[in-house]
Amino acid sequence: xxxxxxxxxxxxxxxxxxPDVVPLSLLLILRAPLLKSDxxxxxxxxxxxxxxxxxxxxxxxxxxxxxxxxxVRRGRTDFGYDFRAGLLWQVHKAVAIFGEY
Length: 101
What we know:
By secondary structure, the chain is mostly beta strands. It is 0% helix and 67% strand.
């Protein structure tokens, strides 16, 4: 069991519009330590699930095609849930490969 925080940023640029989004998630992670050994006491193979609240901070700028009219900038904050599941393979004590959905 553990906790994790995820933050990311993405932006898309289109003709006349530029949305920016920053999602922030706080997760409780549950792992199953499988294939334990002296070299990998926490398990070499670790399937896991994570869940928790997520906040989305979004802002968009819309450019006006008319030169005399200013651009419009609007922001919004939303709440949601984050759920993810994944598999982790420990290749070395300090290196692991994982895939997650």
